[in-house]
Amino acid sequence: MPMSADDIATLIRQAIPDAQVEITDLAGDGDHYAARVVAPSFAGMSRVAQTRAVYAALGGRMGGELHALQLTTAVS
């Protein structure tokens, strides 16, 4: 069963409370999303570390409930 954009945003915000999260459904199918995650707590982290933090927030759902996620991260 696909994940909703709200579910994705909630998981990210629970793990990264200071994050501003924008989710876009790229294909209208609930399986292909783009996410922009901006958080002050990303300061000092490499882009790879930021990406890992977001994927960790999703708790292993990538490739299962969540088929594809185009991810952009930034420090606010």
Automatic annotation (TrEMBL):
Listed SUPFAM superfamilies: BolA-like (SSF82657)
Domain of life where this protein originates: Bacteria
Entry-linked Gene3D superfamilies: BolA-like (3.30.300.90)
Alphabetized InterPro entries for the sequence: BolA, BolA-like_sf, BolA/IbaG_stress_morph_reg
Annotated family: Belongs to the BolA/IbaG family.
PANTHER family: BOLA TRANSCRIPTION REGULATOR, BOLA-LIKE PROTEIN 1
Record protein name field: BolA family transcriptional regulator
Organism: Sphingomonas cynarae
